[in-house]
Amino acid sequence: MPRAVRIIFCRWLALGLLLGLLVSGPARAQTELRTLEEFLALARGTSPLLQDYAGQVAQNRLDSLRRAAQQRPQVVGNGAVVAAPILGRNAAGEGGLGYDEAVSNGGNYAAYLSATQPVLAGPVLRNDYRILASQGLVLRNTRQLAALDLRRTITDQFLTAYAAEQQWTYTQALLRQLNQQDGLLRKLVNGGVFKQTQYLAFYASVRNQEVLVRQARLTYRRELGTLRYLAGAADTTLLLLRAPAAPTHRPLAGLNSVTQRQYSLDSIRLQLDRAAVDLSYRPRLNWVLDAGLQSARAAPRYLGQNVGFSGGLALTVPIFDGHQRQLSYARLQVSEQTRTGYRRFLTVQRRQQYQQLTALARESDELLASIRDQLRVAAALVEAGRQQLTTGDLTILDYLQLVSSYRALQFSLTQAETERLRTLFALDYLAE
Description:
Blueprint: H1 3-31, H2 36-46, H3 48-70, E1 74-83, E2 107-119, H4 122-190, H5 196-231, H6 258-280, E3 284-295, H7 300-305, E4 307-316, H8 324-391, H9 396-430
Antiparallel strand pairs: 1-2, 2-3, 3-4
């Protein structure tokens, strides 16, 4: 093959491989989700709720621009053709049907532009900006709360699926161990060391363990499917998860935490709402300007003479509103009392929960250490029992009892490890 042809061929091959990686990369990355961090990253990217809040934050920025646009001159086009005919009225202005000439004057024919703009409205504008900025902070904090809830949900389901996976792994390991003993026990039964009935009990236990393996596999598949459903993953492959790393023990977050920050933002919003009530009772001044055609007669010669303009100031002064201002203050006061009650309750609740979880984490460590010690003893007993089976010093039923105890301890270890991780992650959430 000529050198030039080889170069072209290699380039096309490299391009094809690159395109293949680009096309299959996202799909392969999604089918290989194994760690908690990968599921969390996918859930954050696919969550429609988080995308909704991001859109609301963008809308809030647009609302600020819209409020600034409202402060600029507002120009409106107006047009009117209104006829008010007078029928059957004599020259003295008596009788007939129609409006009084002083009111109707024949009609109204208009086509003009009008413009208006608030004057000396800086305090109102600045307060409106602060309200919009406060709304933006509330939306961002709400989005962080939603992300924290999503993280808590995904983490909890991941731990549930991981515990189911560990149980499936343990049942498989025990089944392999029993199958390894099956051939030896057959020889011992044929050699007269054990009775046939004892081997039948062992055989039934092996078959029961096979059923337990299938059940554990189905449980893990169901929990893994739920995890993928919550994270928005489309894959259905049965993969093994990787053990999640335990989070570090951080101190309890105070009033600046994500969950408590919403009450601080609510306090700011209530202050701005009170300022908005005060500003709404200030006199409002606008300049107005219009130019165009306004005539009471439709004849062309009159229309041409009635082109003009007008301008001036429009002042609005609130005088009495039926005590609505005081009622608005009272309503804001009730909201403030409600906010204070929620915040006080949440502060006590979080502190109590943090203390309780800290004690649970400490007790979980002690429980795990105790179970691991018992597991080492149980594993040694199972190994010793396996050796004694070969000599007939241990009955098959006693060996099965040792294996069952070891299996129960493994299940207890899985549950204890899962609960410990749940406790540590719950403490980590309280540090946010």
